[in-house]
From TrEMBL:
Name of the molecule in the record: Vitamin K epoxide reductase domain-containing protein
Localization of this protein: Membrane
An annotated GO cellular component: membrane
UniProt keyword annotations, A-Z: Disulfide bond, Membrane, Oxidoreductase, Quinone, Redox-active center, Transmembrane, Transmembrane helix
Alphabetical list of Pfam families matching this protein: VKOR
Length: 258
């Protein structure tokens, strides 16, 4: 004999509709063998191929553009070495559109294609990402020009180490200093010194710019000094700076020139 609860269930259950799980629209799962999965894989592969081709195109046209703008024709010389008409094309009249190399238009096209592939994949645009890409391109363009600028700066910085000139004379010559300069020049006297010699600079200031310039008796003995005559200084037996010829008489002249 069935319990009342079991009897009620047996009488009611046949009359209730059976519930089935119905997935919501668009929630169907794609299996590995479904046509949708195959199409998705093919699309992904095509996008990767497009991006790869665009990257290679960007590299090629970017190299040509950089060579035309800053490279000095290195690619043309390389093409000439391997033969063919590549060098003629790169240097021909159709290689530029106004001030821009024709390859720069190809670079923009390949870059746009690579960007388009990304946008179609994400179906969204990122302003900050585009700004970052633009800044990166600007950094690349500026960095490309740095080596030539750096070499120019190095040449300018190395020039003082090649030849050093004495500090300019700031004082003006007195009448006595000019007379002294004339006597020294008439006797063929020479002042042996070095650009870095502080005592030499002091005596030059005592005589003044006009007397030193008109006398023409200064001899630069430092090998790295401008217009150095080191062999002449060695022949004269110079052992220190400043060294004057006829020093005994010159001391009185220098004191009277002050």
């Amino acid at each position: 004999m069935l319990p009342l609860s079991a009897l009620s269930s047996s009488l009611i259950a046949p009359h209730l509709p059976q519930q089935r799980h119905v997935p919501p629209p668009g929630a169907a799962r794609m299996t590995a063998d479904s046509p949708d999965a195959a199409a998705s894989d093919a699309e992904r592969s095509a996008r990767v191929s497009l991006a790869a081709v665009a990257a290679v195109g960007c590299a090629e046209t970017g190299a040509i553009t950089a060579d035309k703008l800053w490279g000095g024709g290195a690619l043309g010389a390389m093409c000439s070495s391997v033969g063919g008409g590549c060098a003629d094309v790169l240097s021909g009249p159709w290689a530029s559109v106004g001030p821009l190399p024709l390859a720069s238009l190809g670079l923009a096209a390949y870059g746009g294609l690579a960007l388009l592939v990304r946008l179609l994949q994400l179906q969204a645009a990122c302003g900050l990402c585009l700004l970052s890409a633009g800044l990166s391109a600007a950094v690349l363009a500026l960095a490309w020009r740095l080596p030539s600028t750096r070499r120019t700066d190095e040449d300018a910085e190395m020039a003082p180490f090649g030849e050093r000139s004495p500090a300019p004379i700031a004082s003006h010559s007195s009448r006595r200093a000019l007379e002294l300069s004339e006597r020294l020049a008439a006797r063929g006297a020479k002042m042996y010194g070095a650009w870095w010699c502080s005592h030499c600079a002091g005596q030059k200031e005592t005589l003044g710019a006009e007397a030193m310039g008109e006398g023409g008796f200064y001899v630069e003995c430092s090998p790295d000094g401008a217009g150095a005559e080191n062999e002449r200084c060695v022949a004269a037996g110079v052992k220190g700076y400043p060294t004057w010829e006829d020093l005994s008489e010159l001391e009185e002249m220098l004191s009277s020139a002050k």
